[in-house]
């Protein structure tokens, strides 16, 4: 199946690197990292891995001010997804192999104007009430 | 030896879209390449807060002009999964038909640009002449050449007539003959081979570890293609991924060249077996929950993560496009290359920057 309901295994931020290393050792490819805003103070990171078209997903919930370990030294390709998360959601990573300092997608001048432009707290209003 | 930093892009004759590479050079050899993006970042994912589930179909189509309808198909599949919708049989075939038409015109566009990158202007013209027929087919069947807007949540909004099917099958025969005529020039020509063989080599192991997808991955001998997941009508059609083991620019161009002929085969199967049914099912309610979907774009695997909250607006729509995945492999291909080969190697991943930045 190319489409499925997401079933992600919860992990703690401390387990992010060990999980990534275990996946690399098992021959998995990192598909990407998704960021989702949970509420005003928290975001959720979902790590998507693939091996021979079989996916596995891991999610971790963190405070938006917390710093979490980067997996870019394990999966080099994570550097773009992590820098994107830094630019758009202000998620901070410890140990990024190439830190664009919030300028992967944002212009240098924008840094002082806008912080975390994609940080949008989900609405719980019922359908049809929002414009 | 002293190093020099040479900027490559964002404006460069071989780049149809802006990407900037800072090339750290030792004499004529690249030592390191550092990318700089952000020239066409539009924040399209954020539009889920302002556009409803159905309007977002047209937003995601605009992530990329070249593979617009495949973006919409992937997004619609994810929403349909959340809403437990079963797309009509004919719509599943039509989605694959328009997807494969897109694959052909995208690969032809790239083959032309690639020939142009090493100065083979007449080959560039040949491929783009062939591409025009597919743009005509898009226009005749969908009403537009690039942004097709044929997919909707629940199915498709256009159909093919018997005359369309006969015409497309006839054009496919002509196209196949033309491509066979170009095979020797594209794959065996001395100039082409001199500029592409052994350039930008990526092993299969490197490709997997760096997250490569599509022809960049299959050009390194790894038989992985999201179409193996048999989505939509592909479960009823014969298909095997095309691989070339060499891992260089020539291998990646060969994969794309052969994939145009493979797409012809898929199209013939789909067009001759096109079943009768409705085009779309009625959609009621709003999506709730999280779903992920993957399909194969011309440039490789595309990934959508959508999160619905039961309202007509999604909480999140995360799009991982193929070029986003192929930039890290590019950074691994460049060290050791001659400066003169950088344009050819960069183009060999078929970079789509508007996709990458969204």
Provide an overview of this structure:
The complex is a heterodimer of chains A (131) and B (358). Chain A has 131 residues and is an alpha/beta fold. Chain A has two helices and seven strands; from the N terminus they run E-E-H-E-E-E-E-H-E. Chain A starts with a strand and ends in a 37-residue tail after the last strand. In chain B, strands 1-2-3 form a three-stranded antiparallel beta sheet. Chain B has a three-stranded antiparallel beta sheet with strand order 6-7-8. Chain B contains twelve helices and eight strands.
Topology:
The complex is a heterodimer of chains A (131) and B (358).
Chain A: E1 3-5, E2 8-10, H1 16-25, E3 29-39, E4 42-51, E5 54-63, E6 67-69, H2 78-89, E7 92-94
Parallel strand pairs in A: 2-5, 6-7
Antiparallel strand pairs in A: 3-4, 4-5
Chain B: E1 4-8, E2 20-26, E3 29-36, H1 55-61, H2 68-82, H3 89-117, H4 121-142, E4 151-152, E5 155-156, H5 162-188, H6 190-196, H7 204-209, H8 215-218, H9 249-272, E6 288-297, E7 300-309, E8 314-320, H10 322-333, H11 342-348, H12 353-357
Antiparallel strand pairs in B: 1-2, 2-3, 4-5, 6-7, 7-8
Helix pairs in contact in B: 1-2, 2-3, 3-4, 3-9, 3-11, 4-5, 5-9
């Amino acid at each position: 199946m190319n489409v499925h309901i997401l079933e992600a295994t919860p992990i703690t931020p401390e387990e992010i690197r060990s999980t990534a290393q275990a996946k690399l050792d098992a021959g998995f490819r990192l598909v990407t990292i998704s960021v989702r805003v949970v509420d005003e103070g928290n975001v959720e990171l979902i790590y998507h891995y693939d091996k021979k078209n079989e996916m596995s997903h891991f999610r971790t919930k963190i405070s938006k001010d917390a710093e979490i370990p980067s997996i870019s030294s394990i999966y080099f390709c994570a550097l773009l997804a992590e820098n994107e998360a830094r630019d758009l959601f202000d998620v901070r990573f410890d140990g990024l192999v190439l830190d664009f300092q919030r300028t992967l997608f944002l212009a240098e001048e924008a840094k002082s104007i806008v912080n975390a432009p994609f940080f949008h707290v989900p609405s719980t209003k019922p359908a049809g009430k929002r414009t | 030896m002293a190093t020099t930093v040479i900027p490559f892009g964002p404006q460069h004759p071989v780049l149809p879209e802006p990407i900037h590479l800072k090339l750290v050079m030792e004499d004529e050899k690249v030592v390191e390449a550092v990318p700089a993006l952000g020239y066409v970042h539009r924040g399209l994912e954020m539009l889920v807060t302002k556009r409803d589930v159905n309007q977002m179909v047209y937003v995601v189509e605009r992530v990329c002009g070249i593979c617009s309808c495949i973006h919409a198909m992937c997004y619609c599949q994810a929403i349909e999964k959340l809403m437990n919708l079963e797309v009509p049989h004919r719509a599943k075939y039509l989605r694959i038909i328009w997807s494969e038409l897109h694959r052909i015109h995208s690969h032809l566009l790239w083959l032309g640009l690639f020939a142009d990158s090493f100065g083979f202007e007449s080959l560039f013209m040949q491929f783009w002449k062939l591409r025009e027929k597919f743009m005509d087919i898009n226009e005749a069947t969908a009403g537009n050449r690039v942004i097709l807007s044929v997919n909707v949540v629940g199915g498709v909004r256009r159909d093919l007539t018997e005359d369309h099917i006969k015409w497309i099958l006839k054009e496919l025969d002509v196209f196949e003959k033309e491509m066979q005529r170009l095979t020797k020039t594209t794959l065996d020509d001395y100039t082409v081979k001199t500029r592409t063989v052994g350039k930008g080599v990526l092993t299969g192991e490197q490709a997997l570890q760096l997250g490569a997808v599509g022809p960049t991955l299959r050009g390194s001998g790894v038989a992985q293609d999201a179409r193996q997941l048999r989505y939509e009508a592909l479960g009823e059609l014969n298909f095997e991924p095309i691989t070339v083991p060499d891992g260089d620019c020539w291998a990646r161009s060969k994969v794309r060249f052969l994939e145009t002929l493979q797409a012809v085969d898929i199209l013939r199967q789909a067009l001759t077996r096109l079943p009768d049914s409705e085009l779309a099912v009625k959609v009621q309610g709003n999506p709730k929950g999280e779903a992920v979907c993957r399909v194969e774009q011309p440039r490789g695997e595309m990934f959508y993560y959508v999160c619905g909250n039961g309202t007509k607006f999604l909480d999140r729509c995360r799009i991982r496009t193929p070029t986003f995945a192929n930039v890290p492999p590019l950074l691994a291909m460049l060290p050791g290359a001659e400066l003169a080969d950088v344009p050819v190697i960069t183009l060999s991943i078929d970079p789509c920057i508007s996709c990458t930045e969204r």
